[in-house]
Design a protein that fits this description.
- Keywords: Acyltransferase, Repeat, Transferase.
- The chain has 2 helices and 25 strands.
- 18% of the residues lie in helices and 26% in strands.
- The protein is globular, with a radius of gyration of 26 Å.
- With 261 residues, it is an alpha/beta fold.
- It has a 7-stranded parallel beta sheet, with no helix packed on it. A 6-stranded parallel beta sheet has the order 4-7-10-13-18-21, with no helix packed on it. Strands 12-17-20-23-24-25 form a 6-stranded mixed beta sheet, with no helix packed on it.
- It has a single domain, classed as Hexapeptide repeat proteins (UDP N-Acetylglucosamine Acyltransferase, domain 1, 3 Solenoid).
Length: 261
């Protein structure tokens, strides 16, 4: 009986030769991986957008130290988009002003980001009318902000063909917007508001509040006399002293690792 033979099988090589080929193949794969990673790093550096290197994007203003990571998401209506200083816009973030590209939206900004705003990877800001985001607002990944909601007034017309409703959105200074949160038309967030991950905000939120849920509801507030109500479950973290140096931080981290082991 003839023995079955795999079409892609090859005779075994002597052990030393086989080992040498395996080692060479291993190093080739490592070199290829390193080359791909280094190439992508160079592409990301070259494709990042800043005031000094805006590429094809012409924002109404792009502040000092601000940068949009590469690859960018959909961006249009740039003349009506104003970014302050030291903003960080993550990869694949969509920033749009107006219903579609090529519109004349008038003399005033439509989408405004204050200083020190951070937009997490994959977030979207759809500003068909005004969106104002104040200083030091932080977005987690995949946050969705829109000024437009679909209408369904006419039951005989497809929802997508009915004229949408629009309302401005404003987010006060110091807010934290959690991952996958949705900020809907008409939302107005006060100062230092925390929006829990996955929440859907569609109304006004007072200063120093925590909201969660869909639709989002206030679950914690700040009282000048009693503090946070209901009280926080964990103590506040100890802040890093202002005069500590990076070298001292490294030394403390190494000391903590040594004690843990």
């Amino acid at each position: 009986m003839p023995k079955n033979r795999n079409t892609f099988s090859f005779p075994a090589l002597p052990a030393p030769v086989s080992g040498a080929l395996a080692a060479a193949s291993h190093w080739r794969r490592r070199a290829t991986t390193r080359a791909v990673h280094e190439g992508w790093r160079l592409v990301q550096q070259a494709g990042a957008v800043s005031a000094q290197r805006p590429g094809k994007l012409r924002f109404g203003s792009l502040g000092h130290g601000s940068k949009l990571a590469f690859p960018q998401g959909t961006v249009f209506g740039e003349p009506w988009i104003h970014l302050g200083d030291h903003c960080i816009v993550g990869e694949n973030v969509t920033l749009t002003a107006g219903l579609m590209p090529g519109l004349d939206l008038g003399p005033d900004p439509i989408l405004t980001l204050g200083n020190g705003v951070v937009l997490g990877r994959g977030s979207h800001i759809i500003a068909d009318t005004t969106v104002t985001i104040a200083d030091d607002v932080y977005f987690g990944p995949h946050v969705y902000v829109t000024t437009t909601n679909h209408s369904y007034d006419d039951p005989g017309t497809p929802v997508g063909k009915q004229w949408p409703r629009m309302a401005p959105v404003s987010i006060g200074p110091g807010c934290w917007i959690g991952t996958n949160a949705v900020i809907l038309p008409g939302a107005k967030l006060g100062r230092n508001v925390v929006v829990a991950a996955g929440s859907v905000v569609r109304s006004e939120v007072p200063d120093h509040a925590v909201v969660a849920g869909a639709p989002a509801k206030v679950v914690r507030t700040w009282d000048e006399e009693k503090g946070w109500q209901p009280p926080l479950r964990t103590p506040a973290p100890v802040p890093i002293p202002a005069d500590i140096t990076p070298e001292q931080l490294v030394a403390l981290a190494e000391l903590a690792e040594g004690e843990a082991s």
